[in-house]
Amino acid sequence: PPDSPRPQYLQFKYCTPLKMLLQAALMLAGATSQVAPGLHNCPTSPGVGISACPNDAKCCIEQYFGANGCIFANSTNCCSPGPPLEPSTTLPNCLIIGDSVSDQYTPTVAKLLNTTCQVQHAPWVGGGSANDAANGLFNLEHCRWLRTATRPDLHVNWDIIQFNFGLHDLMKTTPELLALYTSQLTNITRILLASGAKHVQYALTTPFQADALEDCGPYCSPGRVNDSGVSWPQPTNGGNGRCGPPRCVAGSIGCGVPNATAKALGPDPSAPGCGPPTFAVTKLNQAAVGVMQSLDVPMLDLNGIVHSHCGTNYSDCELCDDETKYMGIKCGYHYSPIGIPILAQAVADSFTKLLQK
Rounded to an integer, what distance in angstroms lies between the CA atom of residue 151 and that of residue 124? Predict the structure, then answer.
């Protein structure tokens, strides 16, 4: 669920030079900007920037991200803010909705397309950003991700909306949960198609190799991630997230141990040690392809782009950020300074083609 505790390794905040400059500009603007009629400014969120709420709404701190959002009238939920900049009046406006992977590459896409379109990310909160499909659906139904953080009162006519949900949905691998994911993604897609955007595109979920290698089953004991340095394997949220033996790097927090050892050393003698891979990303992408084909939504295969560089069965690749400490193998969720531009270029190229239609 959206309000459940999140693993530490899903809460990284990547700050490229472009993003740092944008954040500095937003914070400076927050000190001098005049709020639009009918709105009131919220406190500036460190590292995120300014946001505003309607006068009949309250500012709030979105629990997971620490970003200032709004509790709108007749609601008790804290909505995370939409993208940070007001819409461009001279360039097409392009929006990327997604998790921390898209949060990584969005600043580079914006730089590549700085004379072609204004590219922004929603929500503008850092960390895991859009989170899972349940969270995305709720926010698109009840909050204002499709409006900007400083003008939540104004509709935006987006030229492109690209979206993705998947890496926070890895636990949805059973038939029942896959059906739930499919339903959530279908409803999200219909909302975006009905938003008035000229183009809507889905980005297929990038690989998660800790749950995609036969000799790298995830450690699957329930509970929160615990980085306390204890000698037994650490549990994970949702039953996935870390590579087990024999593939994992011995001694890393992310490396589990065989069941017998786990039962002997662990605080929960009934907990399993390492389970077989569920190939969650493959299953989620298959479901997503079905949804997008049924609704005639084009797709960008970022998953295939990563595999074309790294191979089919990989645990180490120059495109990967080194997450051995958390995953047991180098390649987890995120991407390196080599990988980010490759993903960003693919997104930028797809936007250029869409804008030409």
Answer: 13
Amino acid, res. 352: T
DSSP letters, 269-283, are TTS-SB-----HHHH
Residue range 179-189, pLDDT digits in tens: 999 999 999 99
Enumerate the H helices of the chain as residue ranges.
17-32, 100-112, 133-142, 175-193, 259-265, 280-294, 302-310, 324-327, 339-355
End-to-end Cα separation, the chain, in angstroms: 38
Q: What SS3 class is residue 20?
A: helix
d(CA 2, CA 63): 10
Burial class (CB in 10 A: 0-12, 13-18, 19+), 356: exposed
**One-letter amino acid for residue 89 of the chain:** T
Closest alpha carbon to 59 in 48, 74, 51 = 51
- Please give the single-letter amino acid code of residue 138: F
Amino acid at position 311, single letter? G
Report H helices in 161-258: 175-193
pLDDT at 252: 66
Q: What distance in Å separates the CA atoms of residue 93 and residue 197, rounded to the nearest whole number?
A: 10
3-state secondary structure of 90: coil
pTM of the model: 0.83
Query: What pLDDT score does 217 carry?
Result: 59
Q: Is the peptide bond before 246 cis (omega within 30 degrees of 0)?
A: yes
Task: Tell me the residue type at 326.
Answer: Y
Cα gap 148→318, rounded to integer Å = 35
Q: Which pLDDT does position 21 carry in this prediction?
A: 40
> Using alpha carbons only, what angle is made at residue 64 by residues 237 and 172, rounded to the nearest 5 degrees?
35
Series of mean pLDDT values for 10-residue runs along the chain (357 residues): 32 40 43 75 75 93 74 89 92 96 96 97 81 93 93 95 95 90 98 98 95 68 40 40 70 56 50 63 97 98 98 95 84 96 98 97
At 162, phi and psi to the nearest 5? -105, 140
Q: How far apart are CA 123 and CA 96, in angstroms?
A: 9
Q: DSSP character for 166?
A: -
At residue 117's C-alpha, the angle toward residues 111 and 118, to 5°, is: 70
**Encoded amino acid at 64, one letter:** Y
So what's the pLDDT on residue 49?
72
